[in-house]
Amino acid sequence: MARTASSLWRTLKAYQIYGANTDVGKTVMSTILCKAFERSDPAQNVWYLKPVSTGPLSEADDRHISRFTSQIKSHCLFQFDEPVSPHIAARTRPPLSDSEILDGVLKHLTECSQAGPGVALVETAGGVHSPTPSGSSQADLYRPLRLPICLVTDHRLGGISASISAFESLHVRGYDLDAVLQFQDDHYQNYSYLRSYFEKKGIPTVSIPQPPKRELNEEEDIEVMTEYYDKMAKNEGIGELLSELSKRHQTRIQRLEEMASRAYSQIWYPFTQHRDVSEDTILTIDSASGDFFQATDSTVTKDKNELALLSPTFDGSASWWTQGLGHGNPELSLAAAYAAGRYGHVMFAGTIHEPALTLAEKLLKNLKNPRLGKVFYSDNGSTGMEVATKMALTASLERYKWDVPKSDVGILGLKGSYHGDTIGAMDCSEPSTYNEKVHWYQGRGYWFDFPQVKMKDGSWVVEPPAGMEDIFGETHVYPSLGDVFDIKSRYDSVAGQKYRKYIEETLHRLVKKEGKTFGGLIMEPVILGAAGMLFADPLFQHCLVQVVRQSSHIFGPSDVNSADINTWTGLPVIFDEVFTGLYRLGRFSSASFLQVHPDISVHAKLLTGGLVPLCTTLASDSIYDAFIGSEKRDALLHGHSYTAHAVGCHVANTSLNTLLEMDRSGQWQVYKEDWADAAAAPSSSSSAPSTASSETGLEVWSSWSKSFIQQISKSRDVESVFALGSVLAINLHDNERAGYNSSAAAGLQKKLLEAPTELKFHSRGLGNVFYLMASQTSTRETLQSIERLLLDVLS
Amino acid sequence: MARTASSLWRTLKAYQIYGANTDVGKTVMSTILCKAFERSDPAQNVWYLKPVSTGPLSEADDRHISRFTSQIKSHCLFQFDEPVSPHIAARTRPPLSDSEILDGVLKHLTECSQAGPGVALVETAGGVHSPTPSGSSQADLYRPLRLPICLVTDHRLGGISASISAFESLHVRGYDLDAVLQFQDDHYQNYSYLRSYFEKKGIPTVSIPQPPKRELNEEEDIEVMTEYYDKMAKNEGIGELLSELSKRHQTRIQRLEEMASRAYSQIWYPFTQHRDVSEDTILTIDSASGDFFQATDSTVTKDKNELALLSPTFDGSASWWTQGLGHGNPELSLAAAYAAGRYGHVMFAGTIHEPALTLAEKLLKNLKNPRLGKVFYSDNGSTGMEVATKMALTASLERYKWDVPKSDVGILGLKGSYHGDTIGAMDCSEPSTYNEKVHWYQGRGYWFDFPQVKMKDGSWVVEPPAGMEDIFGETHVYPSLGDVFDIKSRYDSVAGQKYRKYIEETLHRLVKKEGKTFGGLIMEPVILGAAGMLFADPLFQHCLVQVVRQSSHIFGPSDVNSADINTWTGLPVIFDEVFTGLYRLGRFSSASFLQVHPDISVHAKLLTGGLVPLCTTLASDSIYDAFIGSEKRDALLHGHSYTAHAVGCHVANTSLNTLLEMDRSGQWQVYKEDWADAAAAPSSSSSAPSTASSETGLEVWSSWSKSFIQQISKSRDVESVFALGSVLAINLHDNERAGYNSSAAAGLQKKLLEAPTELKFHSRGLGNVFYLMASQTSTRETLQSIERLLLDVLS
């Protein structure tokens, strides 16, 4: 969905007129409103816009308005002669896209807003879901504008149902109704039922007499209608409604303007040093669509009446890495509502329901990991990682029966890793800014250094940690990102040999010399997110898993005697794919980049496409078996109240189906082609097929363009950069402070805010790392405009 | 919502015919389907039911069916002469309730199912939301049956929109469409657009020619219609649809029958020793409405074709204590969809959106706790309690600046308390079955014994722990439950004095003699849930808070010098209201029972009315201020990806508004009156107003009846019992094993399953404690039938 402003101005009140059905009198009602607005304040402009009209020009709705009003400025953007649905009428013309219509309406409203105080009515065609010229639904097309709605009900037989269903279709798309407009039919009395229905929802209604029957003689017709309109423009109910509309307009603006200060005094924000926050830095989000928040714009002050109060603001962190299918996605809304309507939440101990079973089966199938056999549900990445850790530690203790206190068993991981904010998940990471002041935190384990992948000055390199060249080898340049992922070719390289030697020696030292005990290996595959978007060398991660699996002799006195190749050996391997999985890096499974199968795999964030919390921890049967015992206490005694809640599971199924279908149907082809040579060059040291194959779903690609990455890597401000999947991470030079304490990213954020552009950003920095994350539905156009801006701003 | 079977039989296929609007040809389409079904298999019965019909008898739809078919058994339950909406037509008759209609349809279908193989069509009136005789919506009335739907689209101008909106209204109520039936209109071509629309959703469609125009001459009319029907009954598309319907019916049953075994092999259940689970013990939930799951019934085997495959099964644990407003509540579905449509999830660091701000303000206002000033969001009770614990520990360390390792600072609590399954929340509880085998768990603190409130043999008693009469006093009998809650009157009693002495001495010993350090007091007010529904003496909890607050001299070297009475003293007090709050015990705040205000208050479960995970941790400003500092690391560095997700917050607002309105409007009056004398007797030792006042919202009451509680407390099997709010807990005698390891509750569950009754249960036992939890919308009728059954089963 393109960037489109949500439309709210201080002195222009704009409304969209929807009908509960076709032919319910939208235009008559619009005419009445126009005349009444004009009458209530002759000084204000009254605008009428019909974006798309079908049927003979002489009967067009904007003509009707002109005929019966004098000062109203009426206008039609696109006119089709045939009196049928626009998607059929439009067949005779060159294609008319949704964004052309949306842009046309916005342009018109923007012009209206600059002409001084006024009211603008935008009348839709047919019913709420009537097709647009492109064949989409009208209610979806206009959604980014999210104008307050005046709904004209259906006063005929059956009209109660039609009116309520029309309302529900608008409601599930996040529209607000400001008024319900009714023609009275005293036989069917729909207006009476509907008045009570809508007033319970706090939506004001007005009921007025129906227009007179049409006269055959045009002159007479005009005469009686003129009389009717004059009378209705003075109707008391209409007058009250106009006051109510004004009040709501004011209230909405006032609330938007006070929300930040109320939030500042009442909300305790996550991960926020409140000393650094003020009312002015809190962004008020009125709604969101596609990649954009519709948010308040701090540059718009009260004396600038003509400026829109809301600005489309790019959701640069993909709402903490969760967003995948666009904000306000109607498919996800309907999925959430369906599951809520069918089940609510049904308890998940000893029961099963379709969404939970389908999701478990879908994940097991698509992760293509023959080790995984069981799915455990929880609420977020942190709880899912605690579950994974409990699984691994118990499984390894059951096998090795170490005679050490349980609390002394640690985990192996990578430096800088982060797995969540609950104490158990924190304990899996070494001390850092995030956890060092947390009571009860105790880093339990050992965290390896590792080489990183970066694009530096136009080249892809694998770079050892500073001063550790003897351990990891010198910085090595690769022709493409695909070559970095070509694990088979790189396996026997000097680096590969060094990696394995280093890991083996380290494990030997830790366990045999220092007497430490470890119960699991935990890694985020490919990219360590919270650490500052560190791109780990996939070969190193591959080797770490491999060496751990071959080191049963180091970890315990006995090992498994299973013929099943899917039984874990060495230590259980946990992959934290909470951030990296489910297409965030361009593939369903980020483990596939490493060419190893974990024993336990954790998935959240994109799992629900960016809608509600849900997490799954998948495990192998050999892990699961460790919890089978004669006592209840042998079981995994973990579970949250809303475990496997139907809403989350069904939304996840819908999201994953959508993502899988995008993958299968080549939706990302343009990006993949851009990065095509990222697929590995023919392997030099091995005749085996390349890792970075061109098999669908296993490409190496990004939605950020390759040429942009190369160009920006040469910027003076930039230390290095990378892009993979929808992730873009720019490592900025900071001569003063490094890592999380650097303010380099904040500096770039400031420059972006001050740039002379209409493109607004919401982004989160990680010290000296500035990152942006697109959704899986971001358009190339949107991303290119961001790339241009970044190139402008960075020197 | 009453207990009503979801309707699914092996040999009877039942469908509900809905129209996208009135007058779209539902009856014509039904006639065609009836004839086609008859033709496809002359051996099967074909039934047609019109539950509610309006308009002249001679034109009634069931008559139409009879006229054009010979073998079809057509029937109408309720006939109104006036051709208007049923809610208007019904005005002339005695009120006709929704449940009468629903029961009538179910009775009819049950009879059909017993007559051998067949098909039954149930035709609705008007559009999907057309009002029923009682004025409710038809789509809501029939929802408990959740028959598969055949939707007749609207083929007229505007019909695309009407058809899609009608579908959406059904979809958000959790209905499944098995077929979309269309009349072709080649001018508007709705059928073509809609075919593609519905096929994308996997719903089969069929399009057939429209019936001939009605002839004026009745005989001619019958003749042309007969010809039309004969032709349509042989229509190829209709034939294919019938096969598809049969296939779907078989597939649905097959899937239901295999789900338990698939789940058994793929799902790792929470809190479950899988050795004790088998395919046969897993309940397959097809849907849920009100208090009832619609679940498979293990007593129905394949040879019993005439029995319904799904049984309404009482959700006895209120879905792990979350359920409040009934499963499948359309208001909550629409709320979820609205927020999803308006926002999706929008990230919550440094931003604000309306649902999150409104919820924060609503909680702050309605908890009526002047200490609370800030709201922190997380995902579930366990994460919310970790947040609370981090808050308390940091605040107390900031104040007292103890020179001890952070990990040595513990908490004070009650024996048996439980606060969640993540490691940090586990550490707040003493060792127990739940946590003793969990790696990294370390109980950090001290947990007090406490006296319990019980009804024993017809009397309310406060009973000390066994053998601790010298510390807590002898068992004391109270005339009513209200007297137990009369803290003011009881404060100076011998028990009150003993409690305070015991607490003071214990604190002195722990801190001054044993050198322990404590950073907070954590309690579940009134009832300790996971411990086995222990009802703590509210006076003891009151005194514990009071003594801790007066003991600054014990806990630290310095104390606060604030004039603000809302500043914490002694230790920060955390109330875990996750289970007990938000009307679970009959009041918005369960702290109100104790007459003390916590410094930190945690709310989840009922917060969203039983739909999706969400948790709030509220804190006082004096807690919050401890996290303000010059460094990011001074902040509370906690936050989950979906923090304050808009769907959860908006659903919570809708739920809380509903609960508050039920309270305000006296929805629970019948229960409150039953328990009226539970309000305290006039206070004897104090002239201050009684604690258990009759002020609205502060009563002591239960939705379980008082006489039932008294009666069952005298049962031989029962050690004691209590009810408060929607909670009923029965402590069963078990001479062999006590507590969590007892199987007494399991024994009662078995008896309930085997009882000769149609009332089916899903319940969770806690060792020797059998509990049931109603929702806040449970009807008296439902609960009374459960009470009768329990009285029958217990001896």
What does this 3D model show about the protein?
2 copies of one chain form a homodimer. In chain A, 59% of the residues are buried. The longest helix of chain A has 31 residues, at 236-266. In chain A, helix 11 packs antiparallel against helix 22, helix 12 runs parallel beside helix 22 (646-664) and helix 18 packs across helix 19. In chain A, the strands form 6 sheets. A 7-stranded parallel sheet of chain A has the order 3-2-4-1-5-6-7, sandwiched between helices. In chain A, strands 12-23-22-21-18-13-14 form a 7-stranded mixed sheet, sandwiched between helices. A 4-stranded mixed sheet of chain A has the order 8-9-10-26. The first copy, chain A, is 35% helix and 19% strand. Chain A is an alpha/beta fold. Mean pLDDT of chain A is 92; it is low at 680-693. Chain A contains 26 helices and 28 strands. The radius of gyration of chain A is 30 Å and the shape is elongated. The first copy, chain A, folds into 3 domains: 12-210 and 230-252, P-loop containing nucleotide triphosphate hydrolases (Rossmann fold); 330-671, Aspartate Aminotransferase, domain 2; 706-793, Aspartate Aminotransferase, domain 1. In chain A, strand 13, helix 14 (423-426) and strand 14 (445-448) form a beta-alpha-beta unit. At the A-B interface, helix 6, helix 9, strand 8, helix 10 and helix 11 of A face helix 6, helix 9, strand 8, helix 10 and helix 11 of B. Strand 8 (283-289) of chain A pairs parallel with strand 11 of chain B.
